Amino acid sequence: MKKSKRVLALLALLVMLASLTACGSSAANSGPASGGSGKTEGEKIKIGILFSSSGTTAGVEQAMINASKMAFDEINAQGGIAGHQVEYIHEDYASDPATATKKIQKLIQQDEVLATVGCYTSASRQATLPTLLEENSLLVYPTYTEGEEVHPNVIYIGAMPNQQATDYIPWLIENEGKTAFLVGSDYVFPKTCNKQAKILIEKFGGQVVGEEYAPLGSSDFAAIVTKIKQAKPDFIYSDLVGDSIVAFYKEYKQQGLKPEDCPIASIATDEMINKAMGNEYAAGHYTSMNYFETLETPENKAFVDAYYAKFKDGSTITTLTEAAYDSCYFLKAAIEKAGYPCSTEDLIAAFAGLEMDAPQGKIKVDEENHCTWLYSRFAKCNADGIFAVIYESESAIRPEPWPQVVYPELGGKLPAKPY
Amino acid sequence: MKIGIHALKKVPVHYWIDIALFIFILVFPLLGFKPFRVTYMNQFVAYLIFALSLDLIWGYMGLMSLGHAVLFGMGGYAIGLCAQLQNGAPAFMTREGMNQIPTLLFPMVNPIFATFAGLLLPTLFAFFLGKFLFKSKVSGVFFTIITLALAQIIKDLVINQQAFTNGFNGLQGVPRAFLGLGMDKTAYYYFVAGVLILVYVCCRWLTNSRLGKVAVSIRENESRVSFLGYNPENFKILIFAISGFLAGLSGLLYAPAANSITVEEISVAASTFVLIGLAVGGRGNLTGALVGAMGLQWAKVLLSESTAAYWQLVLGAILLIIIFVMPNGLIGQLLHLVYSLKTRKHKELTGGGA
Amino acid sequence: MSVLQNFVSGLNVSALLMVAALGLVVIFGLMKVINMAHGELIMIGAYMTYGTTTVLAWPFAAGMFMAFLSTAWIGIMMERLILKKLYAKPTETLLATYAISLMLERVIYFFYGAETKFVAMPIPGLLEIGGITMPYYNMFIILFSLLLLFFTLYLFKYTNFGKKVRAITQNRMMSACLGIETANVDTWTFGYGAGLAGLAGALLAPVISVTPGLGAPYLTESFMTVVVGGVQSVIGTALGSVIIGEMRTVLGGFTNTVMAKIIVFVIIIIVIRFKPEGLFVTERR
After folding, report:
1. Where are the domains of chain C?
2. How many whole angstroms separate alpha carbon A354 and alpha carbon A365?
3. ipTM score of the complex?
4. Mean pLDDT, to the nearest integer, of C167-179?
5. Which residues of B touch C85 (CB under 8 A)?
6. Which of A48, A73, A274, C127 is most exposed by smallest CB count within 10 Å?
7. Are A88 and A69 contacting, i.e. CB atoms less than 8 angstroms apart?
């Protein structure tokens, strides 16, 4: 008995030593840099994909990983970028900003990626910024975001607040009523968006009758819904994100609120969340997004069919999925425009004015502010849990990282220190 | 000369491991790894101070804290806030309607003050928490549960008080500096390594001193210690405060190395990760803390690069194996083996018999 | 008015907390095991309910049953294979259960993916009296949790099994000497506690989003509840959950949710400081 225990102990020690040396040697192998400048025709273009496949936001980011991989696989099947095949390297930042810093360093220094498509949370994006600047590398960021940041090393493909709210709020006030209750998750994205929303609501003759924030990931909405019931708003403007949305919509219905009287107008409730909460809770509420899965453009049909043919993991296409997919194609177009091999400066410069026929329609990267012209759309969820688009801008709308309504003094331009 | 060698032989075997580890840390930047590996190492070296601080209270006093990362965070946030305040009120303050730096935070603009705040705050916090808890005989599992709750509250509070902490996004862009003295990557690396060695020497001295011996006796049998005329509470409070100081120091050095400090780093999970490192390396001998924490950090980084999805499974498995096969951890087991070899030799020399 | 509404809503929060904490008091009170995997057991209960009601389209009651059975089975396995060998080593059991929690979470990722899962509301509709509303499902949760409370009390007070459990709690060695098969009693108690966690998950599944990280917040709150109520008192835990649930919801009506939570936690810590044995435990050994 005792002997066997000792043998076991020895074995475990050996295994650990072996794994440690294995780790060490793999690290050592990656040491020497592969020859830098002499890029040849057959050489692959390395691109990083930085999304979480573990941690709290993994559920959202899975479809973004899928879409990026699909885009690069398609690009490779079509002959690659300027004759070069793409080699993508996926790293998991585990929904943790500090890990995002570590991983972007690894992608840039060890894998020597030309650019990275990635990041979902604002926190993770901000965590990569110092490294991007220091290493002079590029991040293509697909998530809709709070704006008030234009980093020289980031191209923002996701929506800026003005692209979600400028057309949405006047419509809501006109069609649903003048009083609004703001509910958001307690962090920078909802707070910044609400700052703009409040100004817009008042500008169009509405009134904010309440503003509440719930901790990220919170599922306890009893007190907040009671406050809403007391305030009796005409609509609820929600920038809740993630798991909180489901809990909030359910508590809303459980406490007897009805979308006919007081619908929830969200800027973050998407197809995936509708699926998770069920049709009876999702029906009758509004969402403002640049893209909905149900859009009837030929590009979108091809995209949706290809996605579901390729991935049967139960993931759902949302605006984030489309943005991740667009990001990869924008990157391809930019590399082609700059000519490979290219410097990061040339590559970033090449993005300005780049246009593409995305699933959501014709969009382009702004010439000045690194953000993307996108469509403004909003939809009402019907009884089958499907978004029926009720408004669509005629063409893509200009992104304003510093919205004019909030910062009239800037006039839609960038401030002196944009990050 | 002969005496010298003899003296060397008397140095316990785990001291040699410590020395080897320090040499490894010191030569690491020269081994030709990519710079980001050195940056990782810099963060891990800062974390080792945290591991030592946790070993003082867990290994030597038997108090398992799931909230120790909060003290770590106080150091990190102090220096992070100082960095953010350098150019007037940062974006997260103006967003919440504070266009001026609040008067209360004004001293924090000074990096020297911020450094002292980052060291003093966790020390005092640990001191008063210790005073509050240990005087009422809160011990064992209750201590663990209270620290669990405390970590949760403070994390919630940090996320909630965005005007001071930037909430969930944390404080980014902390420059490599100490007491306002900016350093380049290499200088900062060796600075942190130097501090670690200094802290290690102090911890060794402390644990070999009367204080450390009393701490161990408190762990083994608290009431007996008090029968012997010591006041175990005061010892506990003192060591807890020292441990708080070291945790704060660790955070203070970590934030610049990592360039940021976020709520993830003060969470229960962060504390638990270092606790696991201690369990794997072996607690109560300092060496185990160093080896375990360093090994686990590298394992996490390297395994998550190849098999991202399975890292958690691997971590769980390592921990279970250690608990069952080597309850004293790697170093604890090694010391045990060496000890039993020595006693066997001793028995042979003295002709057996006990 | 809103205070009253919050009070009514708070009952529901309390009931959920009670079911989660009952599982813990059984495990923690009897065996002094800090079960860090408790949150993950709740999560697995929710996933089992998803599998039964959404994938297999069986009724909700079957989901609850499956949730109880599966988590009880996991609990029994945990106890038999791992914890059994670590008794009287609180730190080791804590670490071992933490290791298990890491692995369980990953296993669920592996089988179900990370996307939020849908569980239908089994009892829709609500009751409204004078502006105060209460969903039927919340009433069901409250009734069910009371039922569970009485069953647990009965189980530990009046059945043969319960008497053995209490004997072991008081003096393990002596009970073993008297011929009580302590090992078996431990296993079944742990299994029952784990099963209760699974039931809590089943009850939660229709009202919140089912994700692999679902259980984590409930771990701390369940521990708080147990500690406030008294670690060996089932009744104390029930009262503790009412206090915490109500305080949080009613306070949440006056300030924001986070502040309410923080205030409650601070009060709890002060309570533990002065009454480490719990609010509702009078006897002292």
Report:
1. 18-216
2. 5
3. 0.86
4. 82
5. 324
6. C127
7. yes
